[in-house]
């Protein structure tokens, strides 16, 4: 009697990587929506295609897909900005082809060398500064193509010539990326490892950070209520805006309190009373003191956690 195949379980972290990749794609698609009706859908499609391809090729290397999501978002933004500046009159179809060329060449190169790249994508090694010189070998040519596209008078050419030029420029970038696919994989993997390490550090100081934010919000609300009460008890306007006196409803009081505590400077709402100025000064001082205490508590928590980790590694010291 043949044994039933084991029930498939997706690798750990697959949902996070999927949501991160598609979330980046959706966010960037909304940001570049002014580039035309096709481009935002292409960004989402490329994000989904990249995640699916990498997931099928590297089932246990989802941190690779996590780094790729950031890379795709950065690439889409750079293409939207630099493509519009260097090739303003290029045809929409040519832009679509040009946008897809580097992504397609990268995915094809990854598939072609999937066996040798699997170890790189699934490695759990720390970030290696020795990768930087290898990254420069393909980053410098790619940025050189972008610099030449912006420097040469390509934007003065006709629609057809600009369309050909943008496809040619992205074809060169595609060739560089395909030839340097291992360096690209190392960069994306290191990006993911650094991000995961930062996320782990942030999780360890989550409790003092949440406590600090709660106290910060409480201070903002307390002073906002004081400003609103003072305005309600006053016979004249204590705050002015660009058009003159303002009644300062509670949303405006909350906004004024936050701006005061953050010390970003006054703009549309300013205090026009000596007592309110004194109260605002007290809030600034209280906010700075709270910031110092919050920073000290976060540093103390890190020291305590580092000490506990050292004890767990080496064991308690005996007499």
Automatic annotation (TrEMBL):
Record domain Potassium channel: where: 247-299
UniProt keywords, alphabetically: Membrane, Transmembrane, Transmembrane helix
InterPro entries: K_chnl_dom (IPR013099)
UniProt keyword annotation of Transferase present: no
Keyword Membrane: yes
TM region(s), chain numbering: 14-32, 38-57, 64-87, 93-112, 135-154, 166-193, 205-230, 276-296
Name assigned to this protein: Potassium channel domain-containing protein
Organism: Neoroseomonas lacus
